[in-house]
Specification:
single chain; 5 strands; 5-stranded antiparallel beta sheet
Length: 282
Amino acid sequence: MSDNELGLFLRTRREAVSPAQVGLPTGPRRRTPGLRRSELATLAGVSVEYITRLEQGRDRRPSPPVLSALADALRLSASERVHLHRLTKSADAGFNCMGGAQPPRAVRPAVRAILDHLEPAPAVVVNRLTEVLAYTDAYRNLMAPFGLFETTPPNLARFAFTDPRARTAYPDWDHLADHTVATLKHGPFRKDPHIAALADELTVTVGPEFTDRVETVPSLPAATGITRLTHPDAGPLRLAYEILDLSADDDQHLIVHLPADDATATALDKLAGVRPGALRAV
């Protein structure tokens, strides 16, 4: 795996910012997507050599003023700024605050009650291993035809990478795979022995489709977005998702899916067997 998450994050964000976004002219011949290192250096007020050292992992502890300047130059969001700060603090750390603790698998009654109130929306609670711990009936109706619940406990990462039905279910499978790797890497990753064991398993069973992403996908999964799903009964669906962190003691996430268009809302209502209009497109 990459041991230079700070450099990877800075490079991928630099390549994602267009010159026009920061008021720079777009030249006719640009080999690099996004900003050149020299352009980022000028915007942040540092040398090109320093940007190179950061991206190559030869300097992993930039000062707070430099971090702030880089974040401003790269137009980072609030969550990306927090992630950038976390990467500098954990650059050389061998410490994992979770120690050898098992990922929590018990779901609190209050969280289960929230799931009940979310019906008929597909919603699921997962832990840091992407194990499926609790879910709405609508989520089971959505995912059962693809075989997600054939293993105990169901695991979203294993399903995405090792079950061929996942590629049929998700037209944008590459995006799903990137998101799954970013989710596993978000946090201590291999410093957590349980995630390390899962990563080792996927390294052996999946190979480059997993390991190449570990090297190139930043450890910051999107907390919201739209997923396309092709369901055998409901047809093509566009689902807007929100990932909500539960308490630190839970160490779990609640993922809620809502219809992203009227056709999906109608299809989900039929799939759940509820009156039309129970779910509204967002």
